[in-house]
Structure of 6-phospho-beta-glucosidase:
Amino acid sequence: MGFQNNFLWGGATAANQCEGGIFEGGRGLANVDVCPSGSDRGAVITGHLKMLEMDDAHVYPAIEAIDHYHHFKEDIRLFGEMGFKVYRLSIAWTRIFPHGDEEEPNEEGLQFYKEIFEECRKYGIQPLVTISHFDCPIGLIKKYGGWRSREMIDFYLHLCDVLFNRYKDYVTYWLTFNEINMILHAPFMGAGIYFEDGENEERIKYQAAHHELVASALATRMAHEVNPENKVGCMFAAGSAYPYTCKPEDVWEALKTDQENYFFVDVQARGYYPSYASARLAKNGVFPVMEPGDKEILKRHPVDFISFSYYNSRCIAAPGSGREEAGGNLFKSAKNPYLDFSEWGWPIDPLGLRITLNQIYDRYQKPLFIVENGLGAVDIPNENGEVEDDYRIDYLRRHIRAMKTAVEEDGVELMGYTSWAPIDLISAGSGEMRKRYGFIYVDKQEDGKGTLSRSRKKSFYWYRKVIETNGEVL
Ligand code: P53
């Protein structure tokens, strides 16, 4: 038993959180570039503080990030040294189409990713490409308001067309949108949407979600047409919702929370709007405007596999029950009294991963892929400059054990596991550098200083062993 022989072990990153070099190679500006670190970040990413340019009053961590743009060869060599079978990365849309609506792609941008894929090939690493990881060109936000407009579908498909054809010989695993359900929680970061006063935010978010869902189905069709070997996955931020107590009101609220997230996967994997969503959206007057043919498109082009991020479970209490909130996360959750918490207040729940895997597999019966999981922590190098991150090893070990049980004892079909951020990079939620997830330490500090040098943490050697033994030695 154990994991299948071709189990895809690896790590996952996102362009804007690691590349930097945002003014190089003919790249244009994107929503993710103008999300500042610091206290305004929350309002910007949720679409409540309009920011479409950089100003002098804020710090923008994407500008340099960890400068992967100039270090990718070294970084991928280190991934190779850990024995990665797969590297999940995302394409910065504005490297390919700087404003989003050009006819011809930017060759320099295409060249950059081609070099990345060639580098991966040297070490036998398969790329898993997220087409849009929270990425939307500012040009398209200014002209069309981001994903609130239907026109976005065509621009996105134009990008897909270029990627599928140009990288046909390098890539067969694709994800259409990172954490597609994040559009409900951080619509500017997720979909380039900011709100004007008095707008019906719910309606705009679900309309934009519909556009992304149609775009995802059409991209799936295109991927299969370009190369029948292509495998396309959806991707959502998972983590089962537990009822705070067995009080029916708590159970009901938890069920609704899960449905809010499963809605996206239901459409992408089953091919239609689930009845609970249709009914609820209609009742709230926010059912999206659809075009003739949309339902058919969704029906005919479901995804091949389901991928998700898992950091923690959620714990849901009925409104007005006065339960203490767990902090530090964009997803609302009560504080689960049975769990420990990370330095950022995120619950730590390995069994929750087994529960989540079972629930998703029961629901869809399609292969699953865990494409993000990890512990954000402050790492302090010791006197020899080494990071002994036993806390990270402990977190990952317990989660990998849980997923192993799900595979061995529950029969869940799992394609692979990519931990989040095998190399330290910028946090999406907070914009911080000091929230580190990596096996590889990057000498870049919160104030932006540092040599950018890379070094192996203790977890680097641990993960290498895990991969080498296909998860037998943990
Ligand atoms: P950071 C919140 C909740 C769940 C997943 O997050 C999230 C977020 C955003 O903070 O995003 C995913 O960096 C996302 C990654 C992100 C990672 O989780 O805030 O796909 O881009 O970096 C971890 O600690």
Observations:
- The first helix runs from residue 15 to 18.
